[in-house]
Amino acid sequence: MKVSQEEVAEVVARHCPAALAFLRSLVEENSFTGNAEGVEANAEIVRKQFAPFGWREEVSPCALPGTGRHLILDSLADAPAVLLVSHLDTVYSPEEQAGAGDPFLEKDGRVCGPGVYDIKGGTAMMWLVLRALEEIDPEAWRAIRWVGAWNAAEERLPSDFSTWCLSHFPSPSAVLVFEGDNRASGGFEIVTGRSGISQYRLECHGKGTHAGNAHEAGLNAILGLAEKLLEISTWTDYKLETTVNVGVIRGGECTNRVPDRAEAWLEIRYTDRQDFADKALRLSEVAAAGAKSGPLFLEELNRIPPLVPSDGSRSLAEHWIGAGRAQGFEVTCGGRRGLSDANFFAGHASTLDGLGPQGGNPHGLNRIGDSVTITEFLDLSSFAAKAELNLLALLRLARTLQGRSPEK
């Protein structure tokens, strides 16, 4: 079934108002990761929007305490499975959202609000593309077992979500993640690479003494640790896309005592595995050498592998590149230092990310006194065009999975 560009544009435009109304309802419901009740309410909005598809629902508690439940909606078609991935949570607390006023603020072709770009806009995009595809090419619709999957706590990157999904669908034909597209203009960008991350706790011991009478006998653990952290922070190498960030420091109990203990939490983000291995070794050597104040103790808390382009993801990306060419848009493949669920799925299936709408300032918030402004935004002017791109690419993918030419 040959589908014209005009027909695609007409169907997408007709369903766009419903998609944006769906988006507004999602954004107005606070779903901060730690607000389990709000995350569940967000999931209920998703269920109702997808209900006309008649898909089977499954839920699973997130492994992180105090969070909501992961959600799967499964079309159950006897066909190759394609996972469409989003998440239910945001980084904005109920207090921040309430303090910012109108959560869905439209102005100058944009809408600002908590999670409007990361990732509620992606969920709305997912529904719009599926709804239009169902109408425009029923044969392609039936050629895929569509599986919508929502992580309850993606902002904290639990590994149990991907494990749960893959226990149901161990060999999906593709995993498509609807995080936002951050290309500013002149086309669209899909994401084929993301940094990996390793998080550490570094603890320093010193010698506690009276800060006046016995100051000279003390060994200040905070200063000893700080000296090492200044060294470690110089390891950032933007050319290799490696960043080293010291995020938390704690130490001491009062000012009249030389602190005997201090600790820091830091992370290394990387795409080059050898560069990371070198820096991880250097970090171990720093810890083994100790500080001027006393011994250092290093603990690796977590490690998530990078999303790296593969033959499978490159082949998958060609459907989006070809669809963009047909539309007259340039579609590029890019990388991010931020992580997503794509990092977890990439080792098991061909994975693409960045299929959501364009926008910017994810997690963005300005605070002046008691005034809070959420600066995260979605670009409304590109919403329909990105949906058309996704629709045409999914048509190409469905035809390929049927053994047909993606062009026909």
Question: What can you tell me about this protein's structure?
Answer:
The protein is α+β, with helices and mostly antiparallel strands and 408 residues long. It folds into 2 domains: 5-194 and 307-401, Aminopeptidase, CATH 3.40.630.10; 196-304, Alpha-Beta Plaits, CATH 3.30.70. 36% of the residues lie in helices and 25% in strands. The chain contains 11 helices and 18 strands. The protein has helices at residues 5-28, 36-50, 94-99, 120-136, 138-142, 160-168, 221-233, 273-289, 311-327, 342-345, 383-401, and strands at 56-61, 69-74, 81-87, 105-107, 110-112, 145-151, 174-177, 188-194, 196-205, 243-251, 261-270, 296-304, 331-336, 351-352, 359-360, 365-368, 371-374, 377-379. The strands form 5 sheets. The chain has a 6-stranded mixed beta sheet, with helices on both faces. Strands 4-5-18-15 form a 4-stranded antiparallel beta sheet, with no helix packed on it. α9 crosses α11 (383-401). The model has no long low-confidence stretch (mean pLDDT 95).
The CATH superfamily of the largest domain is identified as: Zn peptidases
Provide the gyration radius in Å: 24 Å
Order of helices and strands: HHEEEHEEHHEHEEEHEEHEHEHEEEEEH
The name of the CATH architecture of the largest domain is 3-Layer(aba) Sandwich
Any idea how many domains? 2
Percent helix: 25-40%
Shape summary: elongated
CATH topology of the largest domain: Aminopeptidase
Question: Which structural class do the helices and strands define?
Answer: alpha+beta
N- to C-terminal distance = 7 Å
Count of DSSP-assigned helices: 11
Main sheet specs: 6 strands, mixed
What fraction of the residues are assigned to beta strands by DSSP? 25-35%
CATH class of the largest domain: Alpha Beta
Mean pLDDT: 95
